[in-house]
Design goal:
The chain is of the alpha/beta class. Helix content is 22%, strand content 35%. Strand 2, helix 2 and strand 3 form a beta-alpha-beta unit. The chain starts with a strand and ends in a 6-residue tail after the last strand.
Length: 472
């Protein structure tokens, strides 16, 4: 049995403004119709001996992850919630422990949720080869056959082939840090080096044994975190105190660089880690002028650009080798060879306490979405969409009153001691300090306009008394 372990904990700051801390790149459809998380799971369809996946994600992304899996009819045996990020080695350790909890000892196929793979069949073939070696107690990493002297990736130097009659698998000779350009060229010329993909396959018990040998304190804290975990809906909430005490490290540093059982299997499958806007330009479908466009874009005299329109038309004139990304609340314009520096913009936004680093104007909630469509001192206007059958928390606000106008669907409103239904073109008022709840009892999405008024309109002015989704 092979259990996919999908790692979905990253923030993806280099793809700002589309990727935000609370809505990261793996949850976005950057390279196709499906999100990157959905693509990661769906491309495994047809893999021999595949079990139900485990997903490890940031606690704040949990409802989006669960909803995206539901949308592609892919169940998870568990969605493990990290209270804090501790890199890949602890994440996979708790996944291995969870996978073994029922007495099984499966092979784990560890996959980041934010990679693009153009040839899914090639991946499945490599997984089949890797499974044979993992059954022998080896720890497999997939080395990407390089297409250029890339300086942004770590490399793996392959040693002797495991079989004299096959070049499908090699002993790992060394893991190498990101090189300069000249060094990268020598790696490509030698034919002995592969890009480090961060994808692995090994038996759960073997990984834990190796991790305990090299970083025993990590295993102790991970066991404590899982032992103190709480099951909540579809989620496994790790014990926050134990997991926070766990040392952070990657699988590479914690295990793969130290073990004598590491094996690299070459993978030539159109792989990209989509680590920047220039990477999306490289893998995108280009027009006659070398431009990659998404959304409503008009380009005149523009060459070799990545142009993304999210909420309105983007017109580009006379640009070359640039990236332009438009969202409802931010626009990025950057030279294509400087897009790695976008993370510096994100750092400045965080330092200034600006929400553009964290959220889009449209915010996902477990019950649906809300979007701010206008605000000024003492009032704010939002569009709220509640999914069929969904219910907001029973709550009150200390600093604001709310007016609700239904524009589509039917709303069941609880306000103080009364409960009533309003439908399209009807409205109601929620006074400051009054306990209230909003539900959608219908079969179609409920859409309403909410007008807030008061001295403070922050999202933290919510006192919850009951919540279907387990929020405090």
């Amino acid at each position: 049995m092979i259990i996919p372990v999908i790692l979905s904990g990253g923030a993806g700051t280099r793809l700002w403004p589309l990727s935000r801390e609370l809505y990261p790149k793996q949850l976005l459809p950057l390279a196709g119709e499906l999100t990157m998380l959905q693509e990661t799971i769906c491309r495994l369809d047809g893999t021999v001996g595949l079990g139900t996946p485990l997903v490890v994600c940031n606690e704040s992304h949990r409802f989006m992850v669960a909803e995206q899996l539901r949308c592609v009819k892919q169940a998870a045996s568990a969605i493990i919630l990290e209270p804090v990020g501790r890199n890949t080695a602890p994440a996979v350790a708790v996944a291995a422990m969870q996978a073994m909890a029922g007495g099984d000892d499966p092979l784990l196929l560890v996959l980041p949720a934010d990679h693009v793979i153009g040839d899914a069949a090639a991946l499945r073939e490599a997984v089949a080869v890797a499974a044979v070696e993992a059954e022998k107690g080896r720890l497999i990493t997939f080395g990407i056959v390089p297409t250029a002297p890339e300086t942004g990736y770590g490399y793996i130097r392959a040693g002797a082939p495991l079989s004299a009659t096959s070049d499908e698998a090699f002993a790992v000779d060394a893991f190498v840090e990101k090189p300069d350009l000249q060094t990268a060229r020598t790696y490509i010329d030698s034919g002995d080096y592969y890009w480090n993909s961060g994808m692995f396959l090994f038996r759960a018990s073997v990984y834990l044994q190796q991790l305990e040998q090299f970083v025993p304190e990590m295993v102790v804290h991970c066991r404590e975190a899982l032992a103190s975990a709480v099951s909540d809906l579809d989620f496994v909430r790790l014990g926050a105190e134990a997991f926070a005490a766990c040392p952070g490290n990657s699988i590479d540093y914690a295990v793969m660089e130290k073990t004598s059982a590491a094996v690299v299997i070459p993978l030539d499958a159109g792989w990209s880690d989509v680590g920047s806007w220039s990477a999306l330009w490289e893998i995108g479908e280009k027009d006659d002028q070398g431009n990659v466009t998404r959304g409503d874009v008009l380009a005149e005299g523009t060459r070799n650009c990545y142009l993304h329109a999210g909420s309105r038309m983007v017109a580009a004139v006379g640009l070359e080798d640039h990236v332009v990304v438009e969202t409802a609340d931010a626009v990025l314009v950057a030279a294509r060879d400087r897009v790695q520096d976008v993370k510096e913009i994100v750092a400045r936004l965080k330092k200034q306490g600006r929400e553009e680093a964290l959220l889009h104007r449209r915010v996902n909630r477990p019950w649906g979405t809300y979007e701010c469509i206008g605000h000024a001192p003492r009032y704010q206007v939002k569009k709220i969409v509640v999914s069929p059958g969904a219910t907001l928390s029973l709550q009150l606000h200390h600093h604001r009153a709310e007016h609700w106008i239904v524009v589509k669907g039917t709303a069941r409103v609880s306000r103080g001691d009364e409960t009533f239904v309003i439908s399209e073109n009807q409205s109601t008022y929620i006074p400051l300090g009054v306990l209230h709840r909003l539900e959608n009892p219908g079969k179609i999405p409920l859409e309403l306009i909410e007008v807030q008024s008061g001295s403070y309109l922050g999202e933290d002015d919510i006192e919850r008394f009951d919540d279907t989704y387990g929020r405090a």
